[in-house]
Amino acid sequence: MIVAITLIIIALVGIDQLTKIWAVSTLMNQEDIKIWENVFHFHYVKNEGAAWGILSGKQGFLIIITSIIIIGMLIYIRQLPKSKWGNWGRVAFVLIISGAIGNLIDRLFLGYVRDFIYFILINFPVFNVADMFVVVGVALLMIVLLFGDLEEKKANIEKENVEEEIN
Questions:
Q1: Which CA distances in Å does 34 have to 2, 16, 38, 95, 114?
Q2: How far apart are CA 39 and CA 167, in angstroms?
Q3: Is the pLDDT of residue 150 over 90?
Q4: Which entry of 16, 32, 106, 115 is annotated as an active-site residue?
Q5: Which residues pair with 114 in a beta bridge?
Q6: Which of 18, 75, 116, 119 has the most neighbouring CB atoms within 10 Å?
Q7: What is the pLDDT of residues 32-86, one digit of tens each?
Q8: Which residue in 32, 106, 131, 149 is the catalytic one?
Q9: Which pLDDT band holds residue 115 (cuts at 50, 70, 90)?
Q10: Measured between alpha carbons, how far is residue 109 from residues 59, 102, 103, 114 in Å?
Q11: Residues 6+ apart with CB under 8 A from 129
C-alpha cells in the first residue's frame, strides 16, 4: 500500500510540475490565453504567499509549516483504518500531500509559487494544479470526517443488534 501511495504522490506532483513548466514557457511575459473570454483564462503570476497571496514574503515560515504538515500527514496516513472511509481518507491525504509538495518544490527552488489558472468571471485568485489537489483533498477529507464515522457507527450498532439477537 505504501509503495502505491508513494507512486501516486510522485505522479501527481509530476503532473503539477509539468503544468507549471508549461505555464512558464507559454504564459510568462505573454498575454492571457483566453479559454472563455472574461470567464476562464490562463494567466501567469508569481505568488510569494500562500493561498490568495496571504503571508506574502514569508517563504521560510511557509516552508517550515508545509514541511511539518506533510510529515504529519505521511505518518498519519498509515494509521487510517482499512475500511471504505479509511480508503477515502487516504485518497484525501494523497491529494493534500501531493499539492503541498508541488507548491513546496516551487517555494524551495524558486522562492515563489507559479500560479496560472484564473477564473476572471468571479475574480477568483489565480491558482495552480497543486492548489486544486489540496482543495479537493480537503473537501474529501471533510466528507470523510463528517459522514465516514456515522456509517461505521451504524454498521457497529447493526452488528451489535445481530449479536444480541443470536444470544
A1: 41, 21, 8, 28, 18
A2: 64
A3: no
A4: 115
A5: 46
A6: 116
A7: 899 999 899 999 999 887 776 667 777 788 899 999 999 999 998 888 878 778 8
A8: 131
A9: very high
A10: 11, 11, 10, 11
A11: 15, 16, 19, 20, 99, 102, 117
Grid coordinates belonging to 51: 493561498
Greatest pairwise CA separation for the chain in angstroms: 75
The three cell numbers locating residue 38: 472574461
Domain boundaries of the chain, sorted by first residue: 2-141
**DSSP string covering 85-133:** HHHHHHHHHHHHHHHHHHHHHHHHHHSSEEEEEE-GGGTPPPB-HHHHH
Half-sphere exposure for 163 (CA within 13 Å, toward CB): 6
Whether 16 is a known active-site residue: answer no
Contact 118, 32 (CB under 8 A): yes
